[in-house]
Amino acid sequence: MKQLFALALVFAFLSGPALADTPAKPYEEMTITELQAVDTKPLSRDEKKHFKSVLKAKKKAEKARLREEKKRAKAEAKRLKKARKEASKQLSYIQAVYKKTGIFRDPGNSRLRIRGADASISTSEAILALSSNGGHVGYFIRTYYDPASGTLSPQIYLTVKFSDTVDQDQLDARNATAEAYANRRGWWKNYRWATLGGAGRNLTLVDRYSNNAPYYPSFFEEYVIRLAFEDITAAVKAGSTLRVDVRSASRGAGAFTVAVPYDYLLGYLMRLSEADMRLAYLKDWAGPRVTALKATLDTNPPGR
User: Fold this and answer.
1) Mean pLDDT score of the chain, rounded to an integer?
2) Domain check: are 281 and 151 in the same one?
3) Which domain of life is it from (predicted)?
């Protein structure tokens, strides 16, 4: 009897630690930290093998997770850097348009003239439209404001430029100008129609002239496209570009689109708001956009 009792004590002594070290949950459900805290000495050979397999898989998965996290952080930092660069560019453009827009009062006229910054359509589109290597279309927004009535009359002022070769000897012999040469050859572009969203807008030829440079002079045509002020505010409300399509019946003049950027409109309205206290509210159009751009600039990439 004493021998049986002694054997029971020995069995209890030997099995006690193993039972005490039995994990409360499967190894697969443990974290790496929890696994590393496990005492593996009492484990059987098969249990140790299983334990090591689980721990190895956990460490491998953790390394993969850290690599992926580092990759995501790097991609996010790159995205933020690009976003900040673009925000800086856009904010600078708004401020440049604002600074280059002027408020003028012509002598003998009670109206104010708010003249916007110079801009242009893409060079490739201008060349294609004007069939000339020297093709260029410049524009700016101009608004006349009558303080007496509070009327706003905005316009897009276009300057179409193209260049071509003239017979200089013939011009010299006739004491003629490059403009006269262009008249005989029918080079003038004669743009006649402007549309915004399919609706017609009045387009008027203001002037045409040449620099009369020898052999390869440049020719210029200036036009005014009359807008409604709602054309501008509608584009701003939509956060979109103001697009006006221009067409001509001339075979040597292709259609083109004057696309006034959203940020140009905001910079212009910021200056226009200073023409009269009653127009001060126009500055509010740019407020959310400027605030959002500055917030992007203040955003630090991960890890900073």
Assistant:
1) 89
2) yes
3) Bacteria
Q: Where are the beta strands (DSSP E) in 227-299?
A: 242-248, 256-260
Residue ranges of the chain whose pLDDT lies below 70: 1-24, 301-304
Q: What are phi and psi of 261, to 5 degrees?
A: -60, 150
HSE-CB for 242 with a 13 A CA cutoff? 27
Main-chain phi, psi angles of 122, to 5 degrees? -60, 145
> Looking at residue 118, what DSSP letter applies?
P
Specify whether 213 is located in the same domain as 142.
yes
Sign of the torsion angle spanned by Cα atoms 291, 230, 146, 121: positive
Judgement on whether residues 166 and 229 belong to the same structural domain of the protein:
yes
CB 108 within 8 A of CB 101: no
Do 71 and 194 lie in a common domain? no
**In the prediction, which pLDDT does 106 show?**
82
pLDDT value at position 145?
97
pLDDT in tens, 139-159: 999 999 999 999 999 999 999
Select from 276, 234, 244 the least CA-distant residue to 143: 276
**Short-list 146, 156, 153, CA closest to 276:** 146
pLDDT at 131: 85
CB–CB of 291/299 below 8 Å? no
Return the pLDDT at 10.
46
In 112-202, DSSP assigns E strands to 112-115, 119-120, 136-146, 151-163, 191-196, 199-201
Q: What pLDDT, on the 0 to 100 scale, is given for residue 304?
A: 55
Instruction: Report whether 83 contacts 292 (CB < 8 A).
Output: no
**pTM to 2 decimal places:** 0.78
CB of 221 closer than 8 Å to CB of 208: yes
Q: How far apart are CA 118 and CA 102, in angstroms?
A: 11
Segments forming the whole domain that contains residue 70 = 26-38+45-83
How many separate domains does the chain show?
A: 2
